[in-house]
Amino acid sequence: MHRTLRPFELLEPESVQEAVQILASAPPGAKILAGGLDLVSRMTRWQVDPPCLISLQRIPAMDFLDVGENGYLRIGPMTTLRSLELSALVRERWPLLQEAAHQIASVQVKTMGTLVGNLCVATPASDMAPVLFVLAAQLGLVGPAGSATIPIEDFFVPVCQSILEPQQIVVEVSVPPMPARAGTAFKKLAHTKACIAKVNAAVLVTVEDGLCRDARIALGAVAPTVVRAHKAEQALQGKPITRQLACEAANLAAAEVTPISDLRASAEYRKHVAAVLTQRAILAAAECALAPDTAAAWHALAADPPTPAGVAGRTCGAGSQAGPA
Ligand SMILES: Cc1cc2nc3c(=O)[nH]c(=O)nc-3n(C[C@H](O)[C@H](O)[C@H](O)COP(=O)(O)OP(=O)(O)OC[C@H]3O[C@@H](n4cnc5c(N)ncnc54)[C@H](O)[C@@H]3O)c2cc1C
Asked: Which of 11, 3, 4, 5 is nearest to 52 (CA)?
């Protein structure tokens, strides 16, 4: 149901320091405003009622997307999902970010919505959070007590919460350089492209001498917060990534998630899809990681795939956005 916005004060600081000072003295419930996509729509539905919004819009240089001296990708708090999707730098050096941003709803959503806003909403169905988990991203925070940098894995708290204090602001997302010989993939199942995920999965694997040296797997929308599938990761370590192994690891990942049933999907279906998407993402990431001369061998290996347990026949039947394995 659409309602009118309740009255609120809009403040527009011109520096991060001023924004922190305003937040520190603002009445309880004051909120940072970035793109406003989530916040304003919840205000129109009277789900939140902030007395005051502190916009980041007038603060200079909050919309950045560049590489720092340490080689990390730096993403500003006002950098939109669309900027990530269109960036040649991101496509070339952190293609997983581009792949996930590309699968978010619509151009309109991505043009308004910021990456940091997407994370601060803290929904377990975020497409960007699992991707940033496997890329080992960090968040830069600023508050009255000073600044801090935390791994993204420490940011989320069940359910739909983060460790962000009411007076803290996220000022940067930083992403380390991709490891050598690494490949990545993101798979998502949603009802339509305009919808948030029923399940998503992000994978990074490092392959050396034909063996998996490192694996990072994260799944979204299958638990109160993003899940790192540690047992599945361990199952891949030190072995050649065959379809059989990817299938076994995918089944372990599905065993590690604790989805709920809701309007979008049943818990049972989500577990099933978690296995399917994880298998596909592992294989796609492995293919990316392989050098051109070994890619042909991998394709031969992939010719006769087993399927995750309980996935009869249509291994790839998880929906339009999940894409081919
Ligand atoms: C129709 C629709 C479809 C969508 N589809 C998808 C999808 O497919 N996949 C997906 O992952 N997401 C999806 N989303 C979610 C969307 O990505 C987020 O709503 C959006 O990115 C939020 O960013 P924003 O800049 O608009 O945040 P805002 O609405 O401005 O803020 C959101 C929250 O974050 C806080 N916040 C924002 N910036 C900061 C900061 N720097 N420091 C501290 N707190 C901050 C705000 O106070 C607020 O609580 C969809 C949303 C809509 C409306």
From this structure: 11
